[in-house]
Fold:
Amino acid sequence: MAASYADADATSQTTEEAPHARVPAERPFGAMCRTAIEGSYVTAHCHNPYPEIDRVTLHIECDRWWDIDSDGTPVEAGPAQTVRLTGRCWKEVRSAWVSHQR
Structure:
C-alpha cells in the first residue's frame, strides 16, 4: 500500500504544476511612448506595435502651485500607428507621463 500512496502523490503534484489548457496566455499590450519637455511644453510620441488599440493619455503636472495640472483626452493608437500628444503649463513642468487603456 505504501507504493500506491506514493503514486497518488506524484500524480497530484503533476496535475497541479501543469497549466490548464484553456487559460489564455497574456498578450503583449501598450504603445511605446517617448516624452520630451522643452520649457513649458510637453510632447509625447507613442507608437503601438501590437494588434490591439491602445488609448493613450498625456498627463502633465506643473511646478508652480497656481499653475493648473492637466490630463489630456484619450487618443486611440491603432495597430502600427504613431500618435503625437501635446500639452503645456504656463511656467515650468514638474513631470509628465502617458497612461494606457485597453
Notes: The longest strand covers residues 54-62. The helical segments are 2-17. Confidence is low (pLDDT under 50) at residues 4-12. Residues 42 and 87 are 5 Å apart (CA to CA).
